[in-house]
Hints:
The protein is of the alpha+beta class. It has four helices and ten strands.
Amino acid sequence: MRKLITPSLAVLATLCALVLPTSAVHAQEVAADYHVKPGDVLMISVWREEDLQIEALVRPDGKFSFPLVGDVQAAGRAVSEIQTEIIQRIETYIPDAVATVMLKLIEGNKAFVVGKVNRPGPILMTSDTNVMQALSIAGGAAQFAGLKSIVILRGQGGSQSAIPFNYNEVESGKNLQQNITLQAGDVVVVP
């Protein structure tokens, strides 16, 4: 019996060795592309400095505060950029500092689905999320929803735009360009 288990474990170990590195590389690529948003939470620590280990909430103005550094602009930047800035700004106080910045919670990357859906409210977008996926997360359209008249409201600076979406066309494979990737703050309105 022992001989049967050993080859199975060897095959399992080989499969894990082939699959896990690919998954880890993909996760790093996604994290490298993500830009921090207000509402996200960062874990920041400086090696060998207990007083410089904090969880930082990115404020609505896109900044957070860190000891010895003051306010740091985080919104719209990659985690690696924030880490580099912190190291540069604390070098005056701690030469050769080693700092780590990690994204702990992605709370700022939300869109909203409102109107005639089964579960209206915010949806957390941990990866690229298109309109059809958002509607699915919201439990689908409720009875008597106006599927041809869905609108995505998008804020751009101080103004808003309305992007039309016809569920029936996308469902049948037509005009698929309507199925846009949502951005943080988008509101999908299902009349």
